[in-house]
Recover the amino acids of this structure.
């Protein structure tokens, strides 16, 4: 049975939602979304440090969604176009936001991503800085770029472990769900 993306999204898209998205993602859409996020967070009169952190994490997270989403199955492309992704940015408490995203990943890329996520979750802040420099200096990039550089950068900025899952969609595709916690 395939993972029900709509049901998952409905469950995540609740609470004090700042911005949510269900569909194709593009550079133009990212620019618009970032402007909306910046406006919404400024309207809430958040502390400067938290505003900057949320905005900077969102830049990296949305770029990751765009650049590292595998082409979805044909039925999804027919309905939404290429680069299908979902996300919800919401305020969880006074000084705490969450960004929950989902995107398709080809089955053969799961091991690399899982290993990188587990490595990032295991490292402390100093070790994350070292890994970040190592990836940059060794040109350790995947076929889609980055080599996990964006994920390392987000982990450095947030100081929180990633909560993630790989959900079987078809024999070839999984839906990768990621939750990022952003706080002061």
């Amino acid at each position: 049975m395939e993972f029900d993306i709509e049901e998952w999204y409905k469950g995540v898209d609740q609470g004090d939602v700042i911005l949510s998205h269900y569909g194709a993602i593009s550079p133009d859409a990212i620019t618009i979304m970032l402007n909306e996020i910046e406006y919404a967070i400024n309207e809430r009169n958040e502390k400067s440090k938290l505003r900057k952190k949320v905005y900077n994490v969102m830049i990296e997270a949305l770029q990751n969604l765009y650049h590292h989403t595998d082409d979805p199955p044909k039925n999804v492309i027919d309905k939404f176009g290429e680069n299908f992704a979902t996300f919800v940015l919401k305020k969880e408490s006074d000084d705490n936001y969450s960004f929950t995203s989902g995107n398709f990943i080809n089955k053969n890329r799961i091991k690399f991503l899982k290993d990188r996520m587990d490595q990032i979750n295991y490292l402390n802040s100093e070790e994350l800085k070292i890994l970040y420099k190592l990836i940059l200096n060794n040109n350790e990039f995947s076929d889609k770029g980055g080599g996990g550089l964006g994920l390392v950068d987000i982990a450095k900025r947030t100081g929180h472990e990633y909560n993630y899952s790989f959900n079987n969609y078809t024999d070839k595709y999984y839906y990768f769900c990621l939750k990022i916690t952003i706080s002061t």
Remarks:
- The CA atoms of residues 85 and 157 lie 23 Å apart.
- The helical segments are 5-12, 27-43, 48-68, 74-80, 110-122, 125-137, 149-158.
- Residues 48-68 form the longest helix (21 residues).
- The beta strands are 16-24, 84-93, 96-106, 163-168, 173-183.
